[in-house]
Amino acid sequence: MSTISLRQVTKRFDKLIAVDAVDLDVGAGEVVCLLGPSGCGKTTTLRMIAGLEAATAGDVLVGGERVNELSPSQRNIAMVFQFYALYPSLTVRENLAFPLAAERIGRDEITRRVQAVAATLELTHVLDRIPGRLAEGEKQRVAVGRAIIRDPSCFLFDEPLSRLDVELRQQMRGKIKEVLSGLSKATVIVTHDQLEALTMADRIAVMRDGRIEQVATPHEIFAKPANLFVASFIGTPQMNLLPAVCRGIENGLIRFGVDAQEVSLPMEPALARLAAGAKVTLGVRPRAFDLAREPSAGTLSAVADLIEPMGAETLVHMLEGERDIRVVVDRTRRVRPGERLHMRPKPGQIHVFDATGGRVSA
Ligand code: ATP
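Above: the input record for the complex with adenosine-5'-triphosphate. Below: its predicted structure, written as tokens.
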């Protein structure tokens, strides 16, 4: 079975703990993206799976076997880097065939595999060109082709699309996902691009300071971030995080004071542990507000300040005192700077985090 597991894997560089007791399971056919800010330990984690970096502690398992002591080639893992590392003087055909040269594979079989991989990645028409005469997207596909041609036990990608322009990235995200979905291999992709992770991953592991903060499906990471870090890291524009104080429960509603205003949510069992006076943070995504001209119970009022057109939508910065609340509205919704408006969080779209930053709401 093609699986990858990390058990309490740690990497220290002198005093720096780059990866801190990470646990992760990637199933056969599953794509897991390691996502997080620069320096959080994504690449180091990937390099420990590949065998390019030795773990200071913990177990790296591939196909259920501990591989800590095996060399990269013994692990039979294919890795695609940000820099494609193609042989400049070899044609695409020769580049694709190269990983097979070390294995005892007959000429006819090599030809068959090169043709099959070229067809899958739409490279048939460039098989006789050298990399210098390829477009960026084609080079990237040759690099992917070289990884899949060998039938490795699993795949690792390190920022595979970072050198491509926006349009090509979009195409390649789809292409890589399509190719991987036919291969039933465990795959780990490192990226700092959340769109890449949200579109390519079956599950995303969000990392910070060497630790995994949450592992879940893209939908769950977005809809139910486990803590304030994940909430603020995922989603653009960023989620609004409003410091608030729990004011108690009344008539099936739980009330929160936000500055001098108040919002209330339908009570749910998960919120029962909040006592009156508890300090919390309310998270509301910019698209999770309805804007009204008239106030009503449970709306937050503020004045429209900066208005940023974003194409089909408009980002409005609503100011109340020191607080800047970002609201995204359809571009057809006219908002004038200086206008006082009332923001009603859409039902079920307020995230509640406790004083330690952990998620309280279900
Ligand atoms: P980026 O997105 O910028 O590539 P990353 O999340 O992949 O970041 P890593 O490259 O894994 O992060 O680095 C994690 C931490 O370990 C960083 O603080 C980095 O400076 C440090 N680090 C990485 N490699 C080494 C090394 N060989 N020696 C010393 N420190 C290192």
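Notes for the reader.
The CA atoms of residues 293 and 341 lie 5 Å apart.
The chain has a mean pLDDT of 92.
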